[in-house]
Amino acid sequence: MSTSARLRDRRVNLERRATTSKAVRTSLVSLAGLIGAPATNQSGDEVGRVVDVVARLYGTDSYPPVTGLILRIGRRHTFLPADALGKVHAGHVRLRTARVDLRDFVRRPGEALLAKDVLDHQLVDVDGVQVTRAADLYLAPLVDQVVLVGVDVSLPTLLRRLGPRRWQARPTPERVLDWQAIAPFAEQATEGPPEVRLRASRAALHRLRPADLADILEDLGRAERQQLLDWLEPEQAADALEEMEPAELQNLLREAQPEHAARLVDEMEPDEATDALRDLTREEREALLTRMPKDEAAELRRLLAHREGTAGGAMTTLLITARPDETVAEVRGRLAEQHEHRTEIDAVAVVDGTDRLLCDIPLFDVAVAEDTTPISDLVTWLAQFGPPDTVRADTSLAEAADQLVAARASSLLVVDDSGRPLGRILADDLLDAMLPERGRLHFRRFLQ
C-alpha cells in the first residue's frame, strides 16, 4: 500500500471512531469510578457493589460490548447479565427491574474482566506505535448497549484514582485513545480455548513495519510479547525479530517455548538466524537446532562453523543461480518465486556445469533485458568489466568492506577454493557486523 493510501485509510478510520463523536465523549463513564460503586434497583435500594465489569473483549465488534457486572452482595460475588442493566452513570449503576436473576459468574471464551485483566495492564497503541498502560477505561452507551470505547493513559488520571472517591468517578478525556487503536493483552485470562481471532485493532498490528514491531516487542513484558508473536504470521514475526536488539532477541528466544523459538529462528533469514544462534549458549543453540527441519538446521550449522567476524560468518546462503543456456524469462520466473526474500537478493550468480562462478548479474540488468535474451549474452557483455568481485569465507569483514566499497557494489559473493558460490554478503550485513555498538536508532521514542 502506498504512503498516500495508508494516510487516506488512516483518516477514514479516525473519522469513524466513536470517540470523535461529541455525544459519546460527553457520556463517558469511568471504569475506575464504577469499581466499588453501588448498584441499585428501580426503587433506589442498593442491591450490591460493583466489583468488576465483564466485556466481550475478543470478538468481531469494533467496540467490546459489556456483557455483565460482577457484584458483591454480602460476602458473595455474583454475575449480573447486561440485559438487567438499566442505566450506567458515573459512579452508579441502576438496574432495569426490581427483581434480577443473580448467577454465579463463569467466564466465557472472549470475555475479560476489565478491572482485573485490562486496567493497569500493558496495551499496544497501534496509532502511536508504543506500549502503554491503561490508567482508566471509558464506557459509553452505543447502539442500545454499553460498550468499551476508550482508554486513558495519562498521569493525571492515575493521580485522580488516588484521590477522594468523588474524584474517581469523573472522566478526564483529555488524552483518550480510541479502543480501535488499542491491542489488549488479556486473552490468557479467558478460560477454555479461544474461539475468536484478531479484532480490527489487533489486525492493525499487521500493517506496522518490522522495526516498529521490534520496538513494541522490546517494551512488552514476557507474557505479552509471547502473545503478540502468536498473533503475527511467522514471516512477519521473523522480520520483527531481525530488527530487535541482540540482547532483547536473546531474552525473547530464551523465554519462549523451545518449539516456538525454533520455528521463529527457522523463519528468519539464514544470516540473521546465525547471528541470533551465536548469542545463545551451546546447549540452548542445540535445543533449537534439533527442533528445526533437518535441511534448515544443517544449513545453519554450516554457517555457524565459520568464524565470527569473517565473510562466511556474516553471509546469507540464499542465492539465485542461473546457467548460461537459460533465458532471462526463466530467471525472472525463479526470482518471482523468492519475492518474500527480495531484500536479500540483488544479483543472480551464473555458474557453469561444475557450479563454478562465471558472472554475477545485477538485478537491474536482468530487469531491462528482453525475455528471450540468453543469459550467456549478459555474461559476455559483463565480461568486458572484468571478473566478478568475490571474497573467501575466511576473509575478514574489514577486508570485505574495503573490497565492497572499491567495487561500488551492494553485495559480494562468497566462494570456496574452487570458485563455487557459498553465499552472499550484503552491505547491511557488513554494517551490522562491524558496527554492533551503534544499536538501532529509536527516533520515535526520543521524540516522545
Automatic annotation (TrEMBL):
Oxidoreductase among keywords: no
Molecular-function GO terms, alphabetical: magnesium ion transmembrane transporter activity
Pfam family, one: MgtE_N
InterPro entries, alphabetized: CBS_dom, CBS_dom_sf, Mg_transptr_MgtE_intracell_dom, MgtE_N_sf, MgtE_transporter
Entry keyword annotation includes Nucleotide-binding: no
Keywords on record: CBS domain
Taxonomic superkingdom: Bacteria
Span of domain CBS: 382-441
Cellular component GO terms held in the UniProt record: membrane
The name this protein goes by in its record: Magnesium transporter MgtE
Protein source organism: Streptomyces monashensis
Lineage: Bacteria, Bacillati, Actinomycetota, Actinomycetes, Kitasatosporales
